Amino acid sequence: xxxxxxxxxxFALVVVVFAIGIAEAPRKDLVPSPLIGKEVPNFSLPSLxxxxxEVSSKQLLGHWYLFNVWGTWCVSCRMEHPELLQIAxxxxxxxxxxxxxxxRAEALEFxxxxxxxxxxxxxxxxxxxxxxxxxxxxxxTFVVNPxxxxxxxxxxxxxPQAWVQNILPHLPAPQTASAxx
Amino acid sequence: MIPELGEFALILALVLAALQGFFGIAGPALxxxxxxxxxxxxxxxQFVMVATSMGCLMTSFIDNDFSVRYVVENSNSxxxxxxxxxxxxxxxxxxxxxxxxxxxxxxVAAAFGTSRLPREFAARVLGVLGVISFGFxxxxxxxxxxxxxxxxxxxxxxxxxxxxxxxxxxxHPPILYTGYVGLAVAFAFAGAALLEGRLDREWARWTRPxxxxxxxxxxxxxxxxxxxxxxxxxxxGFWFWxxxxxxxxxxxxxxxxxxxxxxxxEKRGLFKSWTLLLAVLGFSLSLLGTFLVRSGVLISVHSFxxxxxxxxxxxxxxxxxxxxxxxxxxxxxxxLKSEAGFELTARESFLLFNNILLVTACGTVFVGEIAPIxxxxxxxxxxxxxxxxxxxxxxxxxxxxxxxVSLGVHSRWKRGGFGDRGKTLILTLAAxxxxxxxxxxGVFSGGGVLAAAGMTLGVWIVLSSLVDPIIRLRRRxxxxxxxxxMTIAHIGLGIFxxxxxxxxxxxxxxxxxxxxxxxxxxxxxxFQFEGVNRLQGSDYGGVSATLLVTRHGEPVAVMHPExxxxxxxxxxxxxxAIDMFDGSNILVALGQDxxxxxxxxxxxxxxxxxxxxxxxxxxxxGGMLAISDRRYRIAAETVEEPATAAARGKA
Lengths: 181, 651
Hints:
By secondary structure, chain A is α/β, with parallel strands linked by helices. Chain A is 35% helix and 19% strand. Chain A is elongated and about 75 Å long. Chain A starts with 5 loop residues before the first helix and ends with a helix. Chain B has a domain at 508-606. In chain B, strands 2, 3, 4, 5, 6 and 7 form a 6-stranded antiparallel beta sheet that branches. In chain B, strands 1-10-9-8 form a 4-stranded antiparallel beta sheet. In chain B, helix 11 packs antiparallel against helix 12.
């Protein structure tokens, strides 16, 4: 055995691993959020639509909901917006928004123009709340159960396909899920 | 018009890169003089085209051309011009173009730098670089074209991700990329040597400045990124073992190893095949970094919008480039014979240990990096590898490495032993232990074995690096810039180790409930809570606390952490007070009003954190100084080998 062949052999192995990695990549959930299976971070934030009101984790207990991190500056969020409207319209599950590092005026303007899929929207202007949720980049969507436990996290824009294949299976059967909306 | 011009220029660049690659490799191989001579014009043409393309994209950004999709996605007419330019590399397609542009710039530099070298060798170097350019140009044009138009154009852009609107964004990627791409030159030199089947000590001397330059840029880029994350993003740390951070650390470790093994190859004609392998692996790892970031195989803070087709392309490209290089290596390397042997305690041995330990460190990072992929591939489910794995394993190879630095610097080539330096080494070690432990107990009052070791090693590296320059100064011997550069880089390393130990070992953070007038202690600092005042801003109200900070009874600062309430948005924000003393970072954040005049406060003291970044920049500066040494600019024939080889202290 020629010892100078060892690097090539190791490289071949690495390539095989990466090839498998790519095949798995579209699932986008290789590194799950460490928060899955844990309670949502305790939060109480001002509401986007009415700053005198607050959106808190306590109010949301008892219902299934999607926690969607977005911002008007985020292109992918604009991409998933029609799908969010679709989900909201279907009444499958209420969507709670976290308006991340955004300007209030722009966010309201955007929702007025494009439609508002959110049941409530919390404001995280400085980005501190998103850090507590372990958000890497918008959009990210968390599925939260009535006990306030995060059961799933989806990274990237929700496409109709992602909704059916990735998110819907984590929600209960339709009749119980729609109870919250 | 301009975007079309940019795209057209990019297509021309692709054609020219193909010619550059073909003529550069086939010309010397088939002994066709004319082909070989055509390489340099192809390099020039390719760079002009790439620069034109880059200029076109920048123009589209500056002119707010919202008919270009990439501009719409990454800019906005309200952005200042500075961030519009930075927006060019704000996302995937543009940063690839930046990559290609920098590769072109390095290639032009290499064309000038190799003009005095044997023509066939120079052509091969440029040929290998041409193949790399070709791959990346093809990648950009087929999967990530930044010039795609939108019809109809958008009225305005969607703006740049606010997280990226910082001077750090403008500087971090270009500098880091300059380092990544610079390793391509070392790779090309290795490729040319492999194609030629010949490698001598001259080759190592030619390759050294390029490697050191790339290494220095890589060092600066990583430092800047870490600094940016700490200050601007406020992530509360400076290194997270994030996949993309690792992707920059691995080539850095390899480049560091390569710099040292090149020294041995040049001085002693040893480690030839090993040096070649390191040169190939260094650039391979920077390609791999690109692959990991772009393919979505690993999710990271730095992930761009991912698409599997991009990943497949890079993987194919990796297989062709690295696979070819390694196959060539397996074929040619056995023919490269070492010119001499050496004793166990010779400098050659220490540099060999240096290499083994650096490569081991790189290997452990690599394993941690790809373990999640393997784990999933084997069907075991998900795995997340973090600091609990990286910190101890990395330390395991780094501690012995640091312990060997001083010994290596003072050991002699070939014969081994330390000569009259043995005593000096023991003295400096003793002094370092006294200073290190003195600082530990005196300033930070306490600490474990690891902290003591870190502090001692840091001081030892600095002290022992100073010995040689002091002796030379006394005897009035001129210090060559390459030696001075090495010394400075090693001193930088020592300072880095010292401050890193302080940060890791003596950072204090606690949340306290303080009554007005209360006193608390954090690190060497005493915080006295003076009280709170009402705040009245233009669009916000709130409270501002006053804390008197003293150290050893001496007042050092008055800090004002604030809690603001913006009327309009009704958003409560916390403005931490951050202050720096002697390089330490103190942070005070005001929490809740607990009633009865008591407030909750978070106090954090990170000692010497600033010095860590300064030290890293000192290392890079040392590298840059070493490159400016005259000996790297002398043409092949006129090098005065015996004189320099006899001089001590060169590594």
